[in-house]
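Thread title: Can someone regenerate the structure for this chain?

I was given the following input by a collaborator and told the matching structure tokens would be attached. They weren't. Posting the sequence so someone can regenerate them.
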Amino acid sequence: MEPLPPGVPSRKQSLLPQRSLGKVSPLDNGSGSGKRYLAQHLSRKSDQGFYGIIATMDVYGFNLTAEQFTEGSVLLHDEDGSNIIQIGWEVAPATYGDSRTHLGSLWTDGIMGDWLVYYGFNGDDPALIGRFPKSLSTGGLANRAAGIQFGGYVWTNTITLTPMGSGYLPKDDAATSASMSNIQFIDQNGHPYPVPQDSPTYMTDPNIYAANPIVNGRFFYGGPMQ
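Best answer:
Regenerated them for you:
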């Protein structure tokens, strides 16, 4: 089982620093230069589908160049992966013109559902900060997602590996690595339920970037430092 590779979007302005994939399929890993690495968990196939996800993420900042990109995010997709909604924290100098950490989102045009985005900082009650309106939908993600993936993704076009998460692999002392915790999926009635602990993982190269198993709704991920 493999996740959907991120595309190469153009930038838009909205409630969040958002980017649109347009007609670029997220299944197309692109033929451009550079190397891409993922360390993510994937949802198992469900006949009921998925109606949302809750997660608490550690957020870090790095001094990157325009030849590097790093993010921790969650992504919802339809059955064939041609339509996605993604949101997370990213450092993307080529997109924003700086090396600060930004809350960004990514979507495919015209096939979006009525998905609401809530955000809370350091334990604050989450507040509504944006939405992908149902009025734009013609199918795909209009009513539910067929799958969810969550974790880290990095890209580099240099000989220097880009830090994912905190920059540390989740080895013996996982406390040095970034985590996602309180992970819950949302059912069709709007009720959260625990993410399965046997959730599949996908790691491009687990010796460089890795994601640990989920335990009590939490997992550690990152790399490449030991």
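The chain is about 0% helix and 40% strand.
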